[in-house]
Amino acid sequence: MKRLATPRAEAEEQASIEALSQTFRASLGRYFSRRVRDPVEAEDMVQEVFERLLKRGNIANLEHAGGYVFETASSVLADRFRKRRSHHADAHDLFDEHRHGDVDFSPEHVLLGREKLARATAILLELPERTRVIFVLRRLEGMRYSDIAARLGISVSAVEKHMQRAIAHLAKRLEE
């Protein structure tokens, strides 16, 4: 059970944090700025160091404060990189109003999209297996005709004929 701090202890703690902030804020900013590209992220990380110090408590009695502050900074940096890697943060695009602003994410739109996908999948499943495989390799995987022919052990013209059949079948069934 954590004891309640007295007003005097809280004042000492606040003074200690302010002293650490005045002493180390600039150097922490430089430390993080050399390791991350975004200056806003670097400032957030500085704030996180002080947040962790506050949560730790008993800062007034801390020996070797500089070492502890930079050890905390190292932990903040490691945690941030671990989180970015586990969340695949570098694979995400920022929201751009001009690029993404007109996309409709309403439930009706999503449902219609799912229905179209289910219908297209059902139509693809009607195709003979080889024709379906060739269509998927070309249109979904982006493979070239010559690569598909080599992979399946058939001629390029046979791949072209299978693609023509698949496209004709899809066009006919989607019109219905």
The overall pLDDT average reads 86
Order of helices and strands: HHHHHHHH
Return the structural class. Answer: mainly alpha
Q: Estimate the global geometry from the Cα principal axes.
A: elongated
How helix-rich are the residues, as a percent range? over 70%
Give the number of helices. 8
How many β strands by DSSP? Answer: 0
Distance between the termini: 71 Å
Which regions are unreliable across 5 or more consecutive residues at pLDDT < 50?
A: none
Strand percentage, roughly?
A: under 5%
Largest sheet: none
Radius of gyration: 30 Å
Tags for this entry?
176 residues
Summarize this entry quickly.
By secondary structure, the protein is mainly alpha-helical. The protein has eight helices and no strands. The N and C termini lie far apart (71 Å).
